[in-house]
Design goal:
It is a single chain. Helix 1 crosses helix 2 and helix 4 runs parallel beside helix 6. This protein has a single domain, classed as Alpha-Beta Barrel (TIM Barrel), CATH 3.20.20. Strand 3, helix 3 and strand 4 form a beta-alpha-beta unit. The protein has an eight-stranded parallel β-barrel with strand order 1-2-3-4-5-6-7-8, surrounded by five helices. 46% of the residues lie in helices and 12% in strands.
Length: 299
């Protein structure tokens, strides 16, 4: 099987800004979208984990996606987060969604239920059968409590032409290398861990779906572009420049860290929805020091 899925490079999993009183801040969302597009990201992922999609109502998700489509207006490709732990519900949502302007869906492995590999295979088989656009598998066992193994990922990639990619956030380099070694032609592998982007792209991964790129879209996109041009030394310098920031934005939960950084940068307010709360004071101060020092390096 050969598929013709074209996304690669740096995707950004955008956050959802909120007003102080809890509603969606569409003005700040527009500002963030312009920031990442002008920063040169290759594609945008809306309604992923970093968007706090689990706390959004169905109507809010529809409103966010409609706003993102309208604001982006075809300037970069869009990927829509669409997953869950009820296969029937996900399939129903797919069948009732207008995918105009959407390049692909990103579908997380079912959480909480802890299905075995047969269950995972049949879950994604059902999604592939319903989806009119390519499917990006999302493996993040630290959040879902189940790991989509390399064997299952590869079986899905070979069996279903529209299962076109995987966002791998297992942190298991052996597992990712096995997928890279045996994947069918055209099947894409994206890093789901910002800190592992450099090693994974050096091993053959096609890019990243990034949290860091919300704040530093130009530099993180440039890191991946340098890797793809085999300019490994220059890319490694950027990797180590950004590594302390990466550590801090995940030190007290995602998206708490990146929202703190975006407030410091003047892009949006640092508001989250329960059960997520703001990053602790130590993380906020460390991010402030990094952002100030990083800005001075660039001026």
């Amino acid at each position: 099987m050969t598929n013709h899925f074209t996304l690669s490079g740096t995707g950004v999993a955008i956050v959802t800004p909120f007003h102080n009183y809890g509603t969606i801040d569409f003005g700040s969302l527009e500002k963030l979208l312009e920031h990442v597009i002008n920063g040169g990201v290759d594609f945008i992922v809306s309604l992923g984990t970093t968007s706090e999609a689990a706390t959004l109502t169905g109507d809010e998700k529809d409103a966010v996606m409609a706003f993102v489509k309208d604001t982006v207006n075809g300037r970069v490709p869009l990927v829509m987060g669409m997953g869950g732990n009820s296969t029937q519900s996900v399939v129903s949502k797919i069948k009732n969604t207008d995918f105009t302007g959407v390049e692909a869906i990103l579908s997380v492995a079912p959480y909480y239920n802890k299905p075995n590999q047969k269950g995972l295979y049949n879950h994604f088989k059902s999604i592939a059968g319903a989806s009119p656009v390519p499917v990006i598998l999302y493996n993040v066992p630290g959040r879902t409590s189940c790991n989509l193994t390399a064997e299952t990922t590869l079986r899905l990639a070979h069996d279903f032409e529209n299962i076109a990619a995987v966002k791998e956030a297992s942190g298991n380099l052996n597992q990712v290398m096995e997928i890279l070694r045996l994947r069918p032609d055209g099947f894409k592998v994206f890093s789901g861990d910002d800190a592992l982007t450099y090693p994974l792209v050096s091993l053959g991964a096609d890019g990243v779906i990034s949290v860091v790129a919300n704040a530093y879209p130009h530099d993180f996109s440039e890191l991946v572009r340098l890797m793809n041009k085999k300019q490994f030394d220059d890319a490694l310098k950027l990797h180590y420049k950004l590594l302390p920031f990466i550590s801090q934005i995940f030190a007290d939960g995602n998206p708490a860290g990146i929202k703190a950084a975006l407030e410091i940068m003047g892009i949006m307010k640092n508001n989250l929805r329960l059960p997520m709360v703001k990053a602790n004071k130590a993380v906020f101060m460390a991010l402030g020091k990094f952002i100030e020092a990083y800005q001075q390096l660039k001026t």
